[in-house]
Amino acid sequence: MYTCVCNAIRECELRKAARQHRGSAESVYAKLGKRPNCGHCLEEAEELIAEEREAMLTALEAA
């Protein structure tokens, strides 16, 4: 599924980038070589990034 239609960023790409880079959705987009255009995706992107990072922490704590 696409998270950002303007930049054709898929959810899986955003989640992977969230695991590899710190910062907000805008900084994760920058690491993907993109930048928000219309901005409609940013709220959902922030939620996905937070969800992915929380899952990483949970996995580390369980290990």
- Helix content range: 55-70%
The DSSP helix count reads: 3
Distance between the termini: 30 Å
Total beta strand runs: 2
The SS-based structural class is: mainly alpha
What order do the helices and strands come in, and which of them pair?
Elements: E1 2-4, E2 9-10, H1 11-20, H2 25-31, H3 42-62
Antiparallel strand pairs: 1-2
Please describe what this structure looks like.
- The chain is mainly α and 63 residues long.
- The protein is 60% helix and 8% strand.
- The protein is built from 3 helices and 2 strands, in the order ββααα.
- It has helices spanning 11-20, 25-31, 42-62, and strands spanning 2-4, 9-10.
- It has a two-stranded antiparallel sheet with strand order 1-2.
- Helix 1 (11-20) crosses helix 3 (42-62).
- The longest helix has 21 residues, at 42-62.
- Pfam families: Fer2_BFD (PF04324).
- Residues 4-51 form the BFD-like [2Fe-2S]-binding domain.
In summary, what is this structure?
The protein is mainly α.
Comma- or semicolon-separated keywords:
single chain; 63 residues; mainly alpha; Arc Repressor Mutant, subunit A; two-stranded antiparallel ribbon; 3 helices
